[in-house]
Amino acid sequence: MIHNHLHKLQQAEKLTEISYGVRKKKVPYKKFNQVWIRADRPIGELYDESLKYSELQFYPNTNYKAWGVWLLMQLKLKKGSRKFSTLIGIGSKWFFRKHVYLPLQADIIYYRSHAAIMVYTSLSDKKVIKVALTKWGKLIMKSEVESQQLASSIKSKHVFITSIHNKVYDEHIHFSVEDYFVGKIQSQKDIAVLENNYYKAFQFLLELYLSHPIELQNLSESPFLNHDFVEAFILQQTRGAEIISVYKRLYAQEKMMVLCRIHGDLNHNNVLSNKDKVCIIDWGKSKHHYLFRDLDNSSFNTMPVYEQFIVLSKIDRDQVYPYYEQLFLEVFIEMCRLIHDGIKRKTIVPSFYILIDFINDKLFEISKKI
C-alpha cells in the first residue's frame, strides 16, 4: 500500500523542491481505488486543473454501450467484470468519501504495485514525478527514461514528447521528474479526431522504428512457441483447435516477424491531444519487440503504416509475413507467453480463462482476413 512507501514519495518531493508556499504536515486526499486526489480545494477548481485532463472518469459515463455491457455482465449473459462505480464517475461519489491525510503535496497520486506517479497541476511549472517502489519498478523506470529521451530527440511539428528534467538513481530512491502535458485522452466520440491524432502519432513513431536496429526473426526463435503443454491448454478453449491450425499453417511458411524499438502501450490514455498537438506518454513498456505490439491498434487502421515501414526500411517483402499474418502471430505469441508463464508460475486464476477466451475470439476474427 501507499503508506508503506510514503517516505520515498516525501523524499522525491523534497529533492525536487516541490512547494506550495506554507508547507503543511499533512494534506487531505480522497481515495478512489488506487488513486489519491487532493481534496483541500473546491471540486470545480480541482476538476478544471487536474481531473479534466486525467484518465479518471469524473462524470457518469455517457456511452450507452458501456452501460449495456455492464448490464449483460450482471445478467450473466456476457463474461467479464465491470464495476458500477466506474460507470457513475468519481464526481458522484466525491462528497461521500472520507478524507485520508498524507504528508505530500501532489494533486493526484496514481499508485501501482511497482511505482507511484505524482502529478502537480497547481504549480505554474506543472510537473510529474515518478517514483520506483520495487526492483522491478527500478528496471522499468530506467527503460522508460531511456526510451523517452530517445523519442524526445526526434524533431516533430505535431508530436510532443515530455522532457525529463531530472532523474535520481541511488541506493535509497529511484525517481524521475518530467513536464506535464495539458491534453485530453482519446475518445471514440469523434472518430475523425481520434484517427487524425493516431495518424500523427504513427508518423512520429515510424521515425523511431527506423532510427533503431530492425530485426527479422523466425518463429522458431520465440521461447514461448511450440510447447506441448501450452498447445494442450489452447486446444481446451473455444475455437482453440482452429487457432492452432492457423498457427501451424503460418509456421510452415518459415517467414519472418519484424522487431524494432516500439512504444509498447498505445492505448487511449497514452496518446494525449491539445488542439493540433499530440503527446505520447508512458514509455515504460518501450523496448526492442515485435512491431505489431504497436500496430495492433483497434482505434486506427495501421496497414498503411506497415506498408510505409516496409518501403522505408527496404525489407524484402518475400522474407516477412504480410500485415494480417504478422498481426495474428504477434497476438498468438503473446497469448502463448501468458499461458506459458501462468502454468510455470502456477498463477492461473478463473479470470485468466476469460482473458484467453477473449484473445481467442480476437485471433479468430483476424484469421478471417488471412
Features:
alpha+beta; 370 residues; 8-stranded antiparallel beta sheet; 3-stranded mixed beta sheet
What order do the strands of the largest sheet run in, or round the barrel if closed?
3-1-2-4-5-6-9-8
Helix share, percent: 40-55%
Number of strands: 14
Whole-angstrom Rg? 22 Å
Span between termini: 46 Å
What gross morphology would you assign?
globular
Instruction: Look at the structure and give the mean pLDDT.
Output: 92
User: What is the count of DSSP helices, taking H or I runs of 4+ residues?
Assistant: 12
Sequence of secondary-structure elements:
HEEHHHEEEEHEEEHEHHEEEEHHHH
Which residues form runs of ≥5 with pLDDT under 50?
A: none
Largest sheet: 8 strands, antiparallel
Query: How big a fraction of the residues is strand?
Result: 15-25%
**What structural class should be given to the helix and strand makeup?**
alpha+beta
Kindly summarize this structure in a few lines:
The protein has 370 residues and is of the alpha+beta class. The chain has helices at 6-16, 43-49, 64-74, 84-88, 135-152, 191-210, 228-235, 240-251, 292-295, 303-313, 323-345, 350-367; strands spanning 27-32, 35-38, 100-102, 108-111, 115-120, 127-132, 159-160, 164-169, 174-179, 215-218, 256-262, 271-274, 277-280, 287-290.
Overview of this protein structure:
- The protein is of the alpha+beta class.
- It has twelve helices and 14 strands.
- A hairpin with a 2-residue loop joins strand 1 (27-32) and strand 2.
- The chain starts with 5 loop residues before the first helix and ends with a helix.
- The model has no long low-confidence stretch (mean pLDDT 92).
